[in-house]
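To: structure desk
From: M.T.
Subject: fold request, one chain
Message: Could you run this one when you get a chance? Sequence is below, nothing fancy, just the single chain.
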Amino acid sequence: MIDVRIHSSRHLETKITYPIPEHESYDRDVDYYIFTPAQLNVSSDFITNAAMLRKFQAHARYASPEITLDELLDRGNKTSPLVLLEQYTQQRINGPYDVSDTIFIHELQTLGNSFRHESGMILSECKELTAEHKVDELRGLLQDWCKETGEGLRRLRSLMQAIRSHYPGGNRMIDAFEWADEAISLVVEGTSLEMYLSLEPLFNELQETAYSLLKHSRAELSYRRLKKYASVVSKENRYSSEAVAYRSGVLKKWTQSVLYLTPVHSKAPQRVSGILAGTAAAIAMTFATMAAIFAETFFLKNSMQWALLVILAYVFKDRIKEGLRAFFSKVVPRLLADQISSFISPRTGKKLSRTKIIIRIKKASEMPPEIQKKRLEDGNPFQDMLPEEDVVHYTRFVKIYKTEKDRTIGPWINAITVITRIRIDDWLKEMDDPNDIMYVSSDDGDFEQQNSERVYHLHLVITETSKRQGISEISHYRVIMNKTGILRLERVGLR
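Reply: Done. Structure tokens follow.
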């Protein structure tokens, strides 16, 4: 399932997770169809494919570790980053066998990501139970949260103290422990406070549990203040709230950096384009040469007939390259991709996936029938009487390679998440000003002046297919926009 959301007023974001197979590679095809009103001029007449491709920015990371707090604290769980850190610390202090600083730090980052992911899951469950008034289940969930996060932080801080004793002069490892400690403390404090606030409808029934959450949250704030961490608001510094927000962002990016995958772009599309251009030039020259020979044989040199034939040859020469490109794009689209890239494991150097991207700007009538039908659901029944919509068609062919699990790449790695951000600047250029004035008749016969916003609707249809795995999913979203950007996103077709 592809997750679609608003990233900012100028960006849409889609997220899709691909499981990493251990035994057999697999393919997935994803198509984005963005239907645009004709008056916005987002068409091939005004925008090139290369320019539109730059509006789609994709990056990938390993999926967040899905480790529950119980699994994280289980001393027998060899995949728990906390257990691995305890083993690494013991080896660093006492044993002759040791892991590198890089792997050590990666596990600290993974521990932070585990806490962040599990905090989000538990917070969502807390809100659901509150809405359903399941008091007993909610009380048990929150008590476990306070107990388990407290134990996890105590074990981490015990390890940090041991590392400090081992390196009394300080070093990079101590810095990494402090950053992980500060990042997790922020997550626990913030999540505990959100849980406390979400309990307002059941506060009388869960008063004791609510105060425990508030105490847990304040304890982490006091701890960071005692440690003189930067993520504490100071009354003496009027810019401290800004500094804390920045510090929180830095810590979040640092913990998540262990998940990032850097794309390696292939030069194959440029090389293929060069070959096609050369082939087109050769065919054009052959055509022009044969036309010249024909003209010299049957017509007088510099005669009207001779000149017309040479001019026609020149005209066709400029069209051959475009014709060949269009022909091969239809016949072998996977070969003539606009962009080819791979994601490489930062630890092992092995290729995790390969992606080929094709982008075209066409008319709505050129789309497959099932896409046209999906676009029209819950829409205007007279759409065919309006100017034909332009469609940006973005296709991603993805191959996920099999990768055997290895301790060196993290036993928690199970999937890759690919995030695509779509910049909508080109859709805003031709829009009218957002404010419009309407006059509405009131019940007593007077007229009232009301300000209304002029909006436009884009329709985003997304398909995900895999013939080998029998996957065929299609979804439809309505993007409501005005000249200032995206206002909201609606899922179409859900009952």
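Reply (cont.): The chain is about 45% helix and 25% strand. Let me know if you need anything else for the meeting.
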